[in-house]
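Section 3.1: Structural characterization of target chains.
Under the original work plan, the team committed to producing a structural model for every single-chain target entering the pipeline before any wet-lab resources were allocated. The record below documents one such target. The sequence was received from the expression subgroup and is listed exactly as submitted; it comprises 162 residues.
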Amino acid sequence: MTDIDKIIADIARKQLRIETLETRKSDSLDFHNVSVWGLRTALLCAFEAGRKAARTKPRVIETGKKDTSYRATIEASYQDLVEVWGEPAKGDGYKTEAEWIIRPTKRTVITIYNYKNSRAYDYKYPEITAVREWHVGGHSADVADRLLGMMAGRAKLIHRAG
C-alpha cells in the first residue's frame, strides 16, 4: 500500500466511515450511502493533503542560474513564495536578500528574487518577510507567464521587461 493509498483510506475511514477501500465483490460491502456534506469534507481533506504534500517536495534547485536576466516583476507575499517553493537561498546580502532558483525542465531556469527593496539594502525598506514585489529572471521572455501559471493565482504580474 502506497502513502497515497494510506492517506485516502484514512480519509475514507474517518470522514465517510468506510472501513476499507478494497473491492470485496459484494454490493452491500462495496457500495455506500454518503451525505453530500460528508463527501465535501472528505474531498477537502484530500485537497489539503495534496497541498501539504506539494509544499514538502523540494522544487528549488540552487544551481544553474547562469546568464539569466530580469524578465518581469510580480506581486506575491513572501509567505506564498515559501509555501510554493520552500525556503529561499540567501542573496548577496545587499541588493538581494532572498532568491529562489527553479528548474521546471532541464533547459528552463526561473529565478525569483528581491532587488534593492528590503532592509538589507536600506533601513527604510521592510524586512524581507514583508516584501511584496519580486523580480523574475530567466533565459527567455516566457518565464514570467510560466511562473504565474505555476503559482496558481498566488502572484500577479506588475511589469514585463520590454
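Residues 3-56 form one domain.
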